[in-house]
Amino acid sequence: MTALPRRAEPYLIHGALALAAVIALFPLAWMISVSVMAPGEAASSPPPLVPASPTLASYRELFSRAAIGRHLANSVGLALAATALSLAFNVTAGYAFAKLRFTGRDLIWKGVVGVMLVPAQVAMIPVFLLLKQVGLVNTYAGVLLPSLASASGIFLIRQYARSIPDELLEAARIDGAGELRIFRSIVLPVLGPVLVTLAMFAFLGSWNDFLWPLIVITSTDQSTVQLGLASFQGAHVTKWNLLMAGNVMALAPMLIVFVGAQRWFVRSLATTGIR
Amino acid sequence: MTRPRAAWWLVSPALIAITVFLVIPVALALALSFTDFDIYGVADRHNVRFIGLANYQRLLAAPIFWTALANTCVFVAVGAPLSIAVSLATALLLHARLARARAVFRTALFSPVVTTVVAVAVIWRYLFHARHGFLNHALGWFGIGAIDWLGDPRWSMLAIIVFAVWKNSGSNMIIFLAALQAIPEEPYEAARIDGATRLQQLRFLTVPALAPTLLLVTILTMVGYFQLFAEPYVMTRGGPAQSTTSVLYYMFEEGFQWWNLGFASAVAFVLFAILLAGTAAQLALARRWSQP
């Protein structure tokens, strides 16, 4: 095989990367483009790439026709609550598994790791029946309860917490600080970056969650943006401009948050590959 | 407060939550799968009867289950290697010494991961549209006739695979990138001095160094892909002609549209068993290969 000329290499590499980036972004860019097209403009052959004259009519119709304002509020509320709960439940456990000794710690930890293998869908039917018994179907609590603690969240925190030097904690103990005080004043600040990461994943996970809210939520008023979008799609199958406007509403918050904080996402995902 | 006592306070909330919402329900699901819990059971618990393995027998005898299983296996067998290959290729490109503007490309390539299936599935439905879709339009430039991606049972699963690969490759790419960045430089310099070509460096240095990561990524991707649900639900509703019905989609239909909850639990457990077997098989294979 003849060697590629050295000078061509940068072009090939960047060319390939550019092609991949275009493939990755094209659907999203087009989504925005279609959302500002006139009704029916998108349903023509050949398919138009750019609107003839951009208009915000689709967005106006969306807010008046679909209950998208309500759904957005529901999604935001749920995502914020899920984030707070995930931080509360997973950080404490992650630190304890990493730095504190207690009976059966290693055995229980093996159990937690094993839990990561179980697909969540196996538990969904019984949890649904359980929630039905206590009347929590179609409530915020019903959506939030199953994901209070997540094995992978605890895993992430434990991974980072292990790097806290023991001497730091010992010195504080010798000085007479209680365990919970140590957790609050020493551990939490050190864990800062990974807390941000966990928060982002919790927010993203909750925002994008589909199957469980689909099962638990039964009324349009309580629906999230994803559910609202899905049923909206069913009702307006070929009104592409409306559908895309709805998409932009559903995707924009996450994309904006992501682009602004992409370093955190990337860094945290990277650590899952390192054992 | 003593250390063990504090530890229990810190650990209990999460452990209780996991036990109540995962461990116990999984055990209950197993129990449910041995009953005939259906719409009558939802109305009144006393309508439920124990029926032993009847659900499993019915499930194994139902042609649609095997269709769903075959569809899911096709999705995993084609989609997973494709996705991993794309992730690895883009990671290698990003990692190349000569690559510039890494952060920009990385963000672009990762953004599909951040999107929701529900939203982007519609975009792709438009792209796959037989008449107005861009994909067929682009195929026309190469003289290829229009394909009814979502209406033809022969092409629908491929459409789902293309969509899933587009959406998911970004996250494995990041994992590979991190692993690549952890490989030391010295062996490569020695190889270059010895005159090794890029391909040889890739084969004898990079791939072995990536082996543990490759295993992790393969297991994670396969486990994830076996749980295919949202894509067929939003894009094709399991059709046309059940060509995109996955095992999980089948479970959802049986459980939450027909309310055959006992039967659906059996489906869920079969899926779980397959996942466990698949993961165990992969780990065993990996152990075998790493022993010379």
Q: Can you give a write-up of this model?
A:
The complex is a heterodimer of chains A (275) and B (292). By secondary structure, chain A is mainly alpha-helical. Chain A is built from 14 helices and no strands. Chain A has helices spanning 9-35, 57-65, 68-99, 105-115, 121-133, 140-144, 151-161, 166-174, 179-190, 192-208, 211-216, 225-235, 240-260, 262-272. In chain A, helix 3 crosses helix 7, helix 3 (68-99) packs antiparallel against helix 12 and helix 10 (192-208) crosses helix 14 (262-272). Chain A is globular and about 75 Å long. In chain B, helix 3 (54-61) packs across helix 13 (261-290) and helix 12 runs antiparallel to helix 13. With 292 residues, chain B is an all-alpha fold. Chain B is globular, with a radius of gyration of 24 Å. The mean pLDDT of chain B is 86. Chain B is built from 13 helices and no strands. The chains are: A mainly alpha (275), B mainly alpha (292). Chains A and B meet through helix 1, helix 3, helix 4, helix 5 and helix 9 of A and helix 1, helix 4, helix 5, helix 6 and helix 8 of B.
The residue ranges of chain B in which pLDDT falls below 50 over 5 or more consecutive positions are none
Rounded mean pLDDT score of chain B: 86
Which structural class best describes the helix and strand composition of chain B? mainly alpha
Tally of separate helices of chain B: 13
Mean pLDDT metric of chain A: 83
Q: What portion of residues of chain A is helical?
A: over 70%
Termini distance of chain B? 52 Å
Give a count of the beta strands of chain A, DSSP E runs of length 2 or more.
Answer: 0
Shape of chain B: globular
How far apart the termini of chain A lie comes to 37 Å
Strand-residue fraction of chain B?
under 5%
Radius of gyration of chain A: 24 Å
Q: What's the oligomerization state? A: heterodimer
The portion of residues forming beta strands of chain A comes to under 5%
Identify the overall geometry of chain A.
globular
Largest β-sheet summary of chain A: none
The chain-level structural class of chain A is mainly alpha
The biggest chain-chain interface is: A-B, 98 and 99 residues
Largest sheet of chain B, if any?
A: none
